[in-house]
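Obj: model holo form, ligand = guanosine-5'-monophosphate.
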Amino acid sequence: MANCLFCKIASGEIPAKIVYQDDHVVAFEDINPQAPTHILVVPKRHIATLNDLTHDDDQLLGELTRRAAAIARDRGIESGGYRTVFNTNRDAGQTVFHIHLHLLGGRSMQWPPG
Ligand code: 5GP
Ligand code: ZN
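Output (holo structure tokens):
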């Protein structure tokens, strides 16, 4: 989609520190990391929010979550633990309207989140 930051990162038009990509998924370092590991796992196809998902996206969502787990394993944080978050719309603080799974780890975190 034109003027979507994460579509532009997915296509290579805007650079990012890419840690993984395949035909459907790209994962890159967050520009403003909130933990020692902070990676965004993103579908290459534009989907604005979780509210826009359909049954056709079920496979893709499985790929995103399994990729986050694989990256956590690569980073050695799988047994210590990590957090995976989709922010949706205003109250959750979503700022980029192309779905992205935050993978955060490498430090202990609080619950409930702020
Ligand atoms: P949200 O607030 O929508 O859940 O998360 C958006 C995330 O994208 C934020 O954590 C923010 O730091 C990250 N971000 C915003 N702009 C860029 C960018 O240009 N490059 C990268 N790598 N991350 C970005
Ligand atoms: Zn997009």
